[in-house]
Amino acid sequence: MINESDLDAWEYYNSKTLNDYQSEALRTKAYPDDKRIIYPVGLLTEEAGEVAGKLNKYHRDGTWDRDGMIKEMGDVMWALAALASDLNVSLEEVADRNIKKLRDRQKRGKIAGSGDNR
Ligand SMILES: [Mg+2]
Fold first, then answer.
1. What is the CATH number of the domain that holds 45?
2. For the chain, N or C: smaller number of CB within 10 Å?
3. Ligand 1: distance of its center to the CA of 96 in Å?
């Protein structure tokens, strides 16, 4: 049964934007200014590997660590938010441009296949 707390959580999560997330994430940023860009790029790669690791453990052990996967995807988001910030780009711009690109490819029947400039 849905209760008041569920509704509050629903409202909270649905009122958050990617830019809200990016602002909050940046408050936890702890790498030095002279490591801008390079640190989050390295972290993004590392955390993407941890996402892959969760999937590998599922294939090896047959147990799905949903909570662990969500945490690792969150780490990927944090690294992306930090990288975008270091490049003066908002996460909403990244998301908007990505969706526009994908919709355009879909419209032209180019959603499958490979290549950056389809
Ligand atoms: Mg991690």
1. 1.10.287.1080
2. N
3. 26
Ligand 1 center from residue 21 Cα (angstroms) = 17
Q: Is the pTM for the entire model greater than 0.85?
A: no
Domain count, the chain: 1
Q: What is the CA radius of gyration of the chain?
A: 18
Give pLDDT tens digits for 34-85.
Answer: 999 999 999 999 999 999 999 999 999 999 999 999 999 999 999 999 999 9
User: Domain range spanning residue 61?
Assistant: 35-109
Is 75 inside any structural domain? yes
Cα(72) to centroid of ligand 1, in Å?
5
